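Hi! If you just cloned this repository, the fastest way to understand the data is to look at a raw example. We've pasted two of them here, unedited. The first protein comes first, obviously.
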Amino acid sequence: MYAVIVTGGKQYKVAEGEYLKIEKLEVATGEAVTFDRVLLVGNGDDVTIGAPVVEGAKVTAEVVEQGRHDKVRIIKFRRRKHSMKRQGHRQWYTEVKITGIQA
């Protein structure tokens, strides 16, 4: 069984037992999270598509870790102007383990 959920402005295809890194959620490690915005639920050939969400469907997950991704380096370079700017960014994430899909 799988589902497509929306969180942090992005869509993710998830299955039970899967680990997923999503945008940071203000939830402590070890707590449960419920995703109510489920766009699609599939079980073999039986697929339910929402308009825009599937009524009564939800995906539960457990927060495994809070952390930061690898550094992304940004360089702004202006040719012939003797100008260059370097910048770095590390995005926060929440790693969750999908524990159940209910449709």
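Ok, and the second one:
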Amino acid sequence: MSKTVVITGTSSGIGLGLARAFLARGYNVVGNARSEERLWESKQALGNPANYIGVAGDIARPETAEQLFNAAIETFGAVDVLVNNAGFFLPKPFTDYTPAELDNLLETNLKGVVYASQVAARHMIGRQQGHIVNITAAVALQANQAVPAALPVLIKGGLNQMTRALALELAPHNIQVNAVAPGIIETPMHAPEIHGFLAGLQPSGRIGRIEDIAEAVLYLAGADFTTGVILPVDGGMSTGKW
């Protein structure tokens, strides 16, 4: 029987790549985006697979998480994996962040993870099995002067610690909780003309690919004896000063 994964933020970039990778592994995929239009576009980009469904809504609202899991369970029977991917990265000088930007970061990057993980944990405790994988950020493991991002680091760093704490809490229920911490990844968020500069921020000398993240997430989604791990996929950026 095919396993089912819920992925938040599948309309583009890493989320869309994760959906494609899980589909290639034979998973049923339940995706999320803010609008029906973006969900339709992402499904077409994936080749309109029969084992992909989408649920529109703001993941920062608890009812969206409930709707995601209800749809997954009604369609596919159960949820085996949650990937908390929805979020955005906003690097800028600390003194330039506005109250609205702080609110937006907290809504999507923090509340979205909490609400989806709460629904996932309740469901998975009932089944006594499951995997939760959070997408955080390598810069939250090792700050970089060239990437001023104190507020995203505050939130993503907190999610790294939540990952460890939740891993311990859910371990008795055979639920594994881990995180992937990407470095700079080639997505539509980064204009091609700055790729050279961005590549120079990582010891490997290149920008990461979405496939690099997908491979790490797929590993953690099936790793039954790995929990509480923050896995950097960043070309060595978080290793230290270089």
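That's it. A detail worth noticing about the second one: The longest strand covers residues 175-182.
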